[in-house]
Amino acid sequence: xxxxxxxxxxxxxxxxxxxxxxxxxxxxxxxxxxxxxxxxxxxxxxxxxxxxxxxxxxxxxxxxxxxxxxxxxxxxxxxxxxxxxxxxxxxxxxxxxxxxxxxxxxxxxxxxxxxxxxxxxxxxxxxxxxxxxxxxxxxxxxxxxxxxxxxxxxxxxxxxxxxxxxxxxxxxxxxxxxxxxxxxxxxxxxxxxxxxxxxxxxxxxxxxxxxxxxxxxxxxxxxxxxxxxxxxxxxxxxxxxxxxxxxxxxxxxxxxxxxxxxxxxxxxxxxxxxxxxxxxxxxxxxxxxxxxxxxxxxxxxxxxxxxxxxxxxxxxxxxxxxxxxxxxxxxxxxxxxxxxxxxxxxxxxxxxxxxxxxxxxxxxxxxxxxxxxxxxxxxxxxxxxxxxxxxxxxxxxxxxxxxxxxxxxxxxxxxxxxxxxxxxxxxxxxxxxxxx
Length: 436
Known about the structure:
The protein is α/β, with parallel strands linked by helices. Helices cover 23% and strands 28% of the residues. The protein has helices at residues 10-22, 44-48, 125-136, 163-174, 195-207, 303-317, 385-394, 400-411, 417-424, and strands at residues 2-6, 27-31, 67-70, 75-79, 84-87, 92-94, 97-100, 104-106, 119-121, 156-159, 179-183, 210-214, 218-223, 227-232, 237-239, 242-245, 249-251, 267-268, 280-282, 287-291, 296-298, 330-335, 338-344, 353-359, 362-369, 372-380.
């Protein structure tokens, strides 16, 4: 049996390891469009900032006598009838079971000048290497550099006020580059935080040297031969020798285009992570799987989710009958010494009960829907989020007083399983760690 995995990231490597655990010596081929071995995308902004050495970005790949990794290969089609994956430069690769773990790609605005040298995205290791070379000079064995000294200390602009954009801005600020974040929304991190919480994070970043243009957007990139600035919707212009676009990502579903495979935002899968075509599975950022807090399928682009989905998909490709319990939207990131954590539907919707509280430098919010906790945000120390998330995933219909006790403990910043059990006077959910 031949196993083929399109993708060499967290989901793909987890799937390969799961296959080998069940079938040692199995024939596994991993195909990657990138030229690098397995690495951590989480560390790319830290590499740009000079906080992590290049060699430390790489992770231990899945290896074995039957494992082959093809780098720099673009998949241009899949033929399920013949059981082959068609690549641009490496011909046809036969498979018995196939996993699509192609990840996601940055969303790039379709505006004039977006292809000018000096305009970057920050998704891949090549992106990170390109940015660092551009702002600091040559790096790497090939000695090829970018603008280098011409951009040292010159202003930069980051387009997008989400997590990727803010981490990029923080990285540039760490290099003492004057950086301005342009966010089209009315506040940063608008998909997670309300205006008050966003203001706390923004103040923290401003102290680190990041400036902001909120409620504005780029309409053109200006420059002669390379980027020199951006024009904004408001009519203002900003000087910039470096621009990083961080406006979110889009699942890479193109390999299954034209196939009878259900695709919404991502590739739709069942509880075994199978697609609607026999023998083809999907996992990771390209996959749309069940989300228990939302009660529907969703793309949850998270490293830990990709690993879990890859493990389940790999086990089932190798003959197991595992079910994926579902993934929950979750984020945890740190700006300097400040942590922002969230899970589930952190913004809430009409009809939800949303409770928020600010204590000292921290801020917390809980979203309650139909007697269930469906999401939360914590800005500050980050001590209670893990406990609340675990309880939310285990919850069954509970008394309103119990839910209120949990919410109050979280908002006060002292939530623990034992505390919840004491306050509620009950063991909240069977199988939880309450009272231990």
